[in-house]
Design goal:
Distance between the termini: 11 Å
Number of helices: 6
Strand content: 25-35%
Structural class: alpha+beta
Length: 167
């Protein structure tokens, strides 16, 4: 089982200067999610003190460990398109409601493999990373910054509960 120490060592290896932490290290507390309802997830949820959760691939995801080439990211799941998510105001009204097992997107690789990405936390979908539509390589090149998948806002009072439920 992989723990947060492994993720932190990966982040440290991405530092520009060894003695300066990355933005992700400074402001986010990460939690590793291996599976969601028995399905392989290999994702990382980055919790910010303002309740925002950033969903990314974990360092152990097959796309990263096997150095696959991502060809596309599809945010249309069945009849629902995550790209049509519309939020407004301070409380992010109108955002799509997500459960932990809600699928956010599918990632397609050049070897014809397809990986589902899940929310891992419940709350409102604030945004999906539309840059991945034109630049899917960001998922592998800048996984914990420009290559994030989505941002989710958990309900008031549940962010810490969800963070503590994930190891």
């Amino acid at each position: 089982m992989v723990d947060a120490v492994d993720f932190e060592s990966v982040l440290r290896s991405k530092r520009i200067l060894n003695d300066l932490p990355t933005v992700t290290e400074r402001y986010f507390d990460g939690r590793y999610v291996k599976e969601i309802q028995g399905k392989l997830a290999e994702e990382y949820v980055l919790f910010h003190s303002n309740r925002i959760c950033v969903i990314t691939l974990a360092p152990m995801h097959p796309i990263l460990t096997e150095k696959k080439t991502v060809t596309s990211v599809d945010f249309k799941i069945g009849e629902v398109s995550r790209l049509q998510n519309q939020v407004s105001g301070k409380w992010k009204r109108g955002g799509q409601q997500l459960k932990q097992h809600s699928q956010l997107c599918e990632i397609h690789c050049n070897d014809n493999s397809v990986y589902a990405v899940y929310s891992c936390v419940y709350g409102r979908l604030v945004e999906v990373n539309e840059n991945l539509l034109e630049k899917p390589h960001l998922l592998t090149e800048k996984t914990w910054s420009e290559g994030y998948i989505a941002i989710v806002l958990p309900p008031l009072g549940s962010s810490d509960v969800q963070k503590n439920a994930l190891k």
